[in-house]
Fold:
Amino acid sequence: MSAYSIFSDRVRDNLPVALATIIEGPNVGATLVVTPTGAESGTLGNDDIDRIVTRDAMGELEAGRTVVRHYGPHGESTPEDLENTDTVRVFIESFSPPPLMWIFGAVDFTAALARVAKVLGYHVTVCDAREIFATKRRFPMADEVRVTWPSPMFEERGERLGPRDAVCILTHDPKFDVPAIEGALATKAGYIGVMGSRKTHAKRLERLADVGITSPSDLARIHSPIGLDLGGRTPEETAISIVGEIISSRTGREARSLGASDGPIH
Amino acid sequence: MRELLNDIDRWKSAGKRIALARVVDIQGSGPRGAGAAMAVNEDGEVIGSVSGGCVESAVVTEALAILAGEQPSRVVTFGYSDDDAFAVGLTCGGIIHLFIQPMEW
Structure:
């Protein structure tokens, strides 16, 4: 298989892969395909540089970073070794699997949120215990539709969730959303949002207290009522306010108009 | 590059030669980060984008020159306002470095 086929298959299968390409120096354009277990295909010109760049690319891939690194022609990387020698610049591009979004509750808001999440590149799983609602036909845009209660879902694969991932609980039914919140808090998910009016939210806090969820650090992780205060009403507008909140909670920005603030934009 | 794969596959199976342009570095303000990519085939068809539309047409010119063998694979920089060699730049004032190569891997 060509380096390109190996690379593109891994990207399509949502498996991590890095491309290391010489962008300056001898063998410009040479490309090495690197996975978390090592070099998979291609060469940058000699075994020495392949070995060093593979090591570095595995590290960058682990961190999800894309960088340019400098080496000597045989992978020399310390400043002393790089004196008086040609420099090879290598572009290391990491392709991490897409972030995950789990949406609990198969409602109209779910379809709109799944659509918007796909635009942002999420791998979307819709979850509901009710077989007649949780169907691929109703959520064709979701990558996966699961008929299940929250607890088994979190037990089965809660450990897959990390800081880039989001759990959105749209059920506003306590028998479903309390276990979903419990499950989500036990993961490393970066964003947990729960739908409901302010009144629902207040009642839900009581139910969470009943099951022992009272610590301020846990409660601070729960975004509820879910979304930014945009004043929208429709499922689509609500979906935008939810992903807006996900972005602003990741960047730590207050979601104000740029026109009303100063400082760097990015 | 993820979003380019279907078109690249199609071009490859049609036997088209393809140039790939990837942002490798951005200094200052820029609309797209490192890894933003576009591809150009020998017929001049273009997919993807590397900025907010500021430098794309210049990238196509470079890519076609590289495919024609008139230029080697190389890093191309846009955004130095004092450099007449490249009249285009990012309107936001940033400097964008792209690596453009024929896809031969």
User: Anything to note?
Assistant: Chain A touches chain B at residues 2-4, 8, 11-12, 21, 23-24, 28-29, 31, 42, 66-68, 89, 91, 93, 95, 121, 264-266 (CB under 8 Å). Chain A has nine helices and eleven strands. The mean pLDDT of chain A is 93. Chain A has two domains: 3-95, 100-251.
